[in-house]
Amino acid sequence: MDMVSLTSRPSSGQRALADSLARGDAAMGSGIAHVAAATYTNPHRFEREQELIFSRAPLLLGPSALLPHVNQAVVHDGYGVPLIISRDGDGHVHVLANVCRHRGTRLLDSEGPVPATRIVCPYHAWAYRADGTLASLPRAECFPGLDKAKHGLVEFPSLEAGGLIWFARDPHPDFADAAALAPDLDAFGLAGLHLYKRRTHDVAANWKLVIDAFLESYHVQRLHAATIASFFADGITVADEIGIHQRAAVGRSDYLSEIDRDDWTALRRAVTYTYQLFPSAVVIVSPDYINLLIAMPQGVGHTLVEDVMLIAEEPQTNEAEAHWQKSWDLLDGGTFGAEDFGAAALGQRGLDSGLIDQITLGTLEDGIANFHRKIDAALR
Ligand code: FES
Ligand SMILES: [Fe+2]
């Protein structure tokens, strides 16, 4: 059950953050910052984010573990584009339009991964391979001169790296920053993990309020007093960046200065690493499991948040299953669902009232200010 045995060393960046924590450095911004309330409530702002960020930037779809086998496919609709994510017979991932090339019918409609040696349209049974190419159609003589090679499913650019699957609607996306995360994620063995559970939360909050909650540890001792607060020291966080993404580490400096920080097993027990994957996903690494949270905006005050929990292997005994179910209930139901997403929804209600013009960020909340600077830059 212990995934830390999968790898032996931290990445250079992970080690540097641990050293910084051991020295007692704190991620302190230089002073108070503000974000305009309209950033979270203005529908025009939301439309611009859709047009200039979500229609262009690489977006996280999920973990590689979503498709553990070749010739599998899974439906994805969360970003407002009907997608099929597939793994072909050679193991390569494809992100395809879930739209038949014959007369536009939605092809697949299932929650989990399905076998996809052939993806067959329910209407007239055009059949596609897992790589999206058109394999066959009934009564092919009725389509004289049809070039099958030009009637495969529409494919989007995609990247599988570090155990994560990305796609972009831009035909020429820059996946460099997504790829740059791989050394850190490989150190956690993310690509080899088992998908234990996934659940989509319907949150009545702007997508940025959801992400903000994972960019500061100021709230951990307060909001999470009843769930996870006792695992963490108050406000001892260091952070840096991997391209457009943010990386943070929380841990106890007194303990860290005593352990061998090249001992990855010990380091992973002592430090919690969190990654904000621009624009709208978070990776939270606990010693024995990893959670991905993927926020998918549906409207200015409405976000779907998929929570995926990854563990080393499928539970083999009832005890193991009960153990993981307990962790899942604590995190997905309690810490994330009731507390973090609950706070985001309360924030939306307060900001929607129009009674304050801006929010105020202290020095422990510099990650939020940094996140909003990156969004502003993308909108310019
Ligand atoms: S619409 Fe798909 S086969 Fe006709
Ligand atoms: Fe939280």
What would your notes on this structure say?
The protein is an alpha+beta fold and 380 residues long. It folds into 2 domains: 3-57 and 177-379, Naphthalene 1,2-dioxygenase Alpha Subunit, Chain A, domain 1, CATH 3.90.380; 69-156, Rieske [2Fe-2S] iron-sulphur domain (Rieske Iron-sulfur Protein, 3-layer Sandwich). The chain has helices spanning 12-22, 38-41, 43-54, 176-179, 182-187, 207-212, 220-223, 253-256, 264-270, 318-352, 366-379; strands at 33-36, 59-63, 72-76, 83-87, 93-97, 114-115, 119-120, 127-128, 134-136, 155-156, 158-161, 164-167, 194-203, 237-242, 245-251, 271-277, 281-285, 290-299, 302-311, 358-361. The strands form 5 sheets. It has a 7-stranded antiparallel beta sheet with strand order 13-19-18-17-16-15-14, sandwiched between helices. Strands 6-3-4-5-10 form a 5-stranded antiparallel beta sheet, with no helix packed on it. Strands 2-12-11 form a 3-stranded antiparallel beta sheet, with no helix packed on it. The longest helix has 35 residues, at 318-352. The termini are far apart. The site of fe (ii) ion has 4 residues, from loops. Fe (ii) ion (FE2) is lined by residues 213, 219, 224, 340.
